[in-house]
Amino acid sequence: MDVKKYLQAARLRTLPLSLSGIVVGSFLAASQHVFDWKICALALLTTVGFQVVSNFANDYGDGVKGTDDHRVGEKRLVASGAISPKQMKTATWVATILTLVVALLLIYSAFGKDNIGYSILFFLLGIASVAAAIKYTVGKFAYGYSGFGDVFVFLFFGLLSVVGSYFLFAKHINVAIFLPAISVGLLSVAVLNLNNMRDSATDKKAGKHTLVVKIGMEFAKYYHYCLIIASFLCAFLYVVVCFQKTVQFLFVLAYIPLVKHLIFVVNNKVALQLDGELKKVALSTFLVALLFGLGQIL
Question: Which of 9, 154, 264, 291 sits most deeply, having the most CB atoms within 10 A of its CB?
Fold first, then answer.
């Protein structure tokens, strides 16, 4: 087995984006003095596992459907023939099992034996996360081919990631944290939307009806502007309502490269040129999460 090929299929460059929600949830917990390093470490590992499952399943699903045959950017392993569909399917199931084991350790560390109800709830959420990751591109009714990928990313990368990780520490929900959760979710959707804008031509030919394919490039750009601006407003509102200290506005600095990105998108005429912006937005999202979190504890 060529480990390098599976590491490539895992798309490690996507991990900072998936970790952003856990970072925010953990910092929020630290600001409330309920942080636990063990829970944090296991939550990060679990999230990485879910992301790898998603990336493996995406490589497999798009590969067997021929969607990646003419894709731009980082090549996919099934489409290129580097890994067979059977091998990728097996890798997906192995990653799923390992991730669920880590998730069980996380749940036990957070709730122990005294909160069976919470344990069952989070285990079901873990199963739902795996199912959503796989069904994005796999199967006849893959929702990523019907324009619902944005909903999945918003719910799992934003709301569940931030609110769920905070709950693991605090054992209760603070309604106000839905604002930063929405902020992270919207930025994550922006990354997906950018990816779908880049691939709109090939997706349309392959029958992958993403939201961009459905609404067209012009409206996809407007949608993109709204996602990033709304994410800023949600984070800003949270700080204004809950803290009002200068240091809490540290996250604003992370939006500077996002403003430059928006200018690039406004002036862009060739969709394929958006490929270089993906990494910038993903890393900026992680930087937003990091600076926002630091602002809560400084």
Answer: 9
